[in-house]
């Protein structure tokens, strides 16, 4: 098999790394890839834009590619799957209409209501005055969300009415034409990445992301500063509820609407203190950095699994197999992230990090004249495995300490909830 992976982040490096472990896979092309994918054996970076659907289709046909795996939400929201399928190319990733589950919070809310999925009460607004009035009526804490793609950073959890009102103004002033304001749900978050062929759904092990930039879950929201899996908050009983009350009804409702959804259905959940799951949001792709912790635990070969989804054959696929133990991923970021940051800093210590038993997934990196340089806000995702969470946490931080670039920043408390349990 030959496979294209669309994207250039840590998620895409993890996907390419895992796909290459499948015996069937001879070569992976990353469009455009990063410094890490450039170093993978039997992997090649291709200098095409993720928006160049015509060029991607031509490359896939000329190179007899068997499957295209789309990493980021942006090309999915633009309709890359629709464009490639029209050329007879197999794609793992939903169509443009299916990707609305992430690209439009209001569309996703309507879908959840139709499916009877437990979620937060909310209102959708096309003008700031109406949204502000809703906040003044409901009070705080309350949540304000951009109705559009925001790279994981378009959510404001407002502890006061003043913060909520300021958030509404900021989103409308930033060009968003619609916002969703919803009730604050108390509890603990967990991410469930499920694979579906539009009929059957298979959930991967649950993960817990750390969105805030600061230790103790403080400061600004980011794309994710670290993650661990499996998340113990998601008990077997909770996972059964998620399958029966959330994933299955959503897939069925998508099908009822005539949407052939083949890809990842990523449910961001809040688990209440009483153990009841409610949906915070849905995403239409693999999580980042969740993928960097979940895939190292997966023993089932990834390539035939994703191909079964793309071909509508997931029901006949054998049960997924998982290795025992835990995985913890710590993100090393550039100074200043999630705000302005510099690029072009030399990265050292990767080999020493890997010698500690870690897997290094590149996110914002590039190779220039033999040097590995920083090229993004989140630079590396460093993952370690262990038979226990404590073992994985200790191993990953020994590994992270080996890496250096000017301004390196990482949280030192990733996995703190799991360790406390």
List keywords for this structure.
421 residues, alpha+beta, five-stranded antiparallel beta sheet, 15 helices, 22 strands, globular
User: What structural class is derived from the secondary structure elements?
Assistant: alpha+beta
Number of strand segments: 22
Main β-sheet description: 5 strands, parallel
Number of helices: 15
C-alpha end-to-end distance: 43 Å
- The helix fraction, in percent, is 25-40%
Identify low-pLDDT runs: none
Model description:
It contains 15 helices and 22 strands. The chain has 421 residues and is of the alpha+beta class. The protein starts with a strand and ends with a helix. A five-stranded parallel sheet has the order 3-2-1-4-5. The protein has a five-stranded antiparallel sheet with strand order 12-15-18-22-19. 50% of the residues are buried. It comes from Pannus brasiliensis CCIBt3594. Keywords: ATP-binding, Ligase, Manganese, Metal-binding, Nucleotide-binding, Purine biosynthesis.
């Amino acid at each position: 098999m030959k496979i294209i992976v669309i994207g250039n982040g840590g998620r895409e490096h993890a996907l390419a790394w895992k796909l290459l472990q499948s015996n069937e896979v001879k070569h992976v092309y990353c469009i455009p890839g990063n410094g890490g994918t450039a170093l993978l054996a039997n992997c090649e970076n291709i200098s095409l834009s993720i928006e160049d659907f015509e060029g991607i289709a031509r490359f896939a046909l000329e190179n007899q590619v068997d499957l295209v795996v789309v990493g980021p939400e942006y090309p999915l929201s633009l309709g890359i799957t629709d464009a490639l399928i029209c050329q007879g190319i197999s794609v793992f990733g939903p169509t443009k209409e299916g990707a609305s589950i992430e690209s439009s919070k209001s569309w996703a809310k309507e879908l959840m209501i139709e499916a009877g999925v437990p979620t937060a009460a909310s209102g959708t607004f096309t003008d700031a005055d109406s949204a502000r009035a809703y906040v003044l009526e409901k009070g705080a804490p309350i949540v304000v969300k951009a109705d559009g793609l925001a790279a994981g950073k378009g959510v404001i959890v407002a502890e006061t009415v003043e913060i909520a009102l300021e958030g509404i103004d900021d989103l409308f002033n930033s060009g968003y034409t619609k916002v969703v304001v919803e009730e604050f749900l108390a509890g603990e978050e967990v991410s469930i990445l499920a694979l579906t062929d539009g009929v059957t759904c298979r959930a991967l092990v649950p993960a817990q992301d750390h969105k805030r930039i600061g230790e103790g879950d403080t400061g600004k929201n980011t794309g994710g500063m670290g993650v661990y899996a499996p998340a113990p908050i998601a008990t077997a009983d909770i996972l059964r509820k998620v399958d029966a009350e959330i994933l299955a009804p959503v897939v069925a409702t998508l099908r009822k609407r005539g949407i052939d959804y083949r890809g990842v259905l990523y449910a961001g959940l809040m688990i209440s203190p009483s153990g009841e799951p409610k949906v915070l949001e849905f995403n239409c792709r693999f999580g980042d950095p969740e993928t960097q912790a979940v895939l190292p635990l997966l023993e089932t070969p990834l390539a035939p699994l994703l191909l079964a989804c793309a071909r509508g054959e997931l029901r006949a696929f054998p049960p997924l197999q998982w290795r025992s133990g835990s995985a913890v991923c710590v993100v090393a970021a550039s100074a200043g992230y999630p705000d302005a940051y510099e690029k072009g800093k030399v990265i050292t210590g990767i080999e020493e990090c890997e010698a500690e038993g870690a897997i290094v997934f590149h996110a914002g990196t590039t190779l220039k004249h033999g040097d590995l340089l920083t090229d993004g806000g989140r630079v590396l995702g460093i993952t370690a495995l262990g038979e226990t969470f404590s073992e994985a946490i200790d191993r990953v931080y020994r590994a992270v300490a080996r890496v250096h670039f000017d301004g390196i920043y990482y949280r030192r408390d990733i996995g703190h909830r799991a360790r406390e349990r």
